[in-house]
Amino acid sequence: MNLAVGDGRFVSLVGPSGSGKSSLLRAMIGLQRPLSGTVEMNLARSQVGILFQDDALLPWKTARDNVALGLTFNGMERSKALAEAESWLERLDLAGFGDRFPRHLSGGQRKRVALAQVLAMQPKLILMDEPFASLDAIVGARVVRDVVALVEREKISVLLVTHDLEEALSLSDEVYLLSQGPRAHITQQYLVPIPRPRDPVHSRMHPAFSPLYERLWADLSREVDHRAEAA
Amino acid sequence: MFLHPRYAWIRQLAAFAVLLAVWEAAGRAGLLNPLYVPNPSRIGAALVELFSDGRIWPHLDATFTAALGGLALGIVVGILLGVAAALVRLIAELLEPLMTVLNAIPRVILAPLFVIWLGIGLASKVALSFILVAVLIFSTVFTGIRQVDRRLVERVVTLGGDRWALVRHVYLPSVAAWVLGNLKIAVGFAFTGACVGEFVAATHGLGYLLSFAQSTYNAALMFALILLILVVVLLIFAIAGRLEKYLLRWS
After folding, report:
1. Using a CB-CB distance cutoff of 8 angstroms, which residues of chain A are in contact with residue B144?
2. I need a labelling partner for B133 at 20 to 30 A (CA). Which of A4, A134, A224, B152 fits?
3. CATH superfamily to which A1-43+125-231 belongs
């Protein structure tokens, strides 16, 4: 499989469950070894961040300490890392929440802290494994809007894995469809001609959205039916 | 208003006072044999006497030293062995059966053995206290480390943390949390070990005084000592509880 995520491009990967979308991301970041074959990326590991579905913040560290964590791993002095962390918290609307423990933050705030944690590392590419699935509609929409604004401004590339087709189309410049696993491969590529900067909610009203959505839906259905027949 | 849940402690206190009054009255009316059940006033007098003539201090000192020594040693050794077993399979294979056996038996039955080995002095009490605590802490840490949240490990790894970072930011705080969560039980165990050890054979300590009271049929002294041990353990429970609450304020 060959996947190109251009500089500053937002690319989504959709596919039936079991097509190995999450495994692909985990293999890319080195959390799991591919069953066969190798993973090659033209970016260093430290230039790639990952955002999981669950926040996985260290519960015994404050929001600020959590954000500073990766910076100190990279050798930054602790006081400097904390100041840097604070500025990222502010950029993510979390000014004044730095001293809170994750337990005392709402789901949306925890998601923002996790995002700040990744952004503070100044990655070139962020892998996202259904990071918004656990949030309720309004909170989720706000977090998504801020994520989009940030990656647009910082020119960060994103590879998002999701099974929410609307989410994929409204956020991405390109969407790839994966076939049913095992041995899943990319079957289709869709270019989303909605201009940036984008508002994820309004981009769903763009004239290009519905036809693309219908095509994607039909293709994905075919993939799933294909599996049913094979079984 | 008197039945408001907030005032439960007043009701409990009142019930206790009534119980004491009935007990005292029944004793004075000759309904209770003072040889077995002395009046509360007699018990109180015995307690005051223990302190007023200063006789109690060396005993309190002995029990505290044994219990706190056993507690500290037990926590340190329990953590070290638990971590070692969780990291090295061979150590786990060797230690697990021993710990399972020690966990299954009432460990105070080792008291006479420790007296033979270590004498009737402080060492045998510390040893009993230690073995009670260490086994508890070992199992807590050993099972705890194997249940560390994988997601936290992955988070630290993907942020660029090395093995040491994992130990420092994920494993140590997890271990600390489990140990603190069991601190009250460990304190109870430590005092159990000290008192039982003293009860078996000693020259000092609250347990020794208890056994003395038993051999002289001094029920008032016995009640007074039970009360004293209760207060001591509750006090340490309160301190442990405070410590736990502060250190686990994130949870």
Report:
1. none
2. B152
3. P-loop containing nucleotide triphosphate hydrolases (3.40.50.300)
Inter-chain residue contact A49 with B158, CB threshold 8 Å: yes
What is the value of pTM for the model shown? 0.80
Q: What residue ranges do the domains of chain A occupy?
A: 1-43+125-231, 54-123
Q: Do B250 and A102 touch (CB under 8 A)?
A: yes
pLDDT at B78 over 70: yes
Q: Where are the domains of chain B?
A: 49-247
| Interchain proximity A73–B250, CB inside 8 Å | no
Query: How high is the pLDDT of residue B228?
Result: 93
Just give the CATH number of B49-247: 1.10.3720.10
> Which residues in B212-244 are b (16+ Cβ under 10 Å) and which e?
bbeeeebbbbbbbbeebbeebbeebeeebeeeb
Closest by CA to A63, choosing from A106, A122, A30, is: A106
pLDDT of residue B60: 94
Token pair belonging to B128: 């009993």
Q: What is the ipTM of this complex?
A: 0.86
